[in-house]
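ok trying this again, last paste got cut off
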Amino acid sequence: MAARPALCDHSAVTSTVLVVDDHPSFRATARAVLEAEGFVVVGEAASGPEALERAAELRPDVVLLDVQLPGLDGFEVAAQLGANGASPTVVLVSSRDAADYGELITRSGAAGFVPKGELTGASIRALLR
């Protein structure tokens, strides 16, 4: 007797994302890329303080967070998001290479770093495991 296929594939759980970047063009690109790959973008923010407000309001699973932001930089935002018990997974992004930031990425509490030019749904999913 053949095994029945699973009725529900829990590995395909959709993640909600808050995209934080001070450039509207990158926010639009990130939204398009992530939504095309099955993520649900629940909001956007353009500064560090706005990121904290929107994360508290929207409670996303993932915060895609630019390193260089007005108000508070991405490292400080990541640290503040990680300070509460039910924090989202933070993925830092930048147009610069991870090597430019060294230990700042690790100390921020972020799950990882993705260069903006390499942003894909797969690169985000790899950090969510």
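PB: full thing came through this time. Helices lie at 24-36, 48-58, 74-82, 103-108, 121-128.
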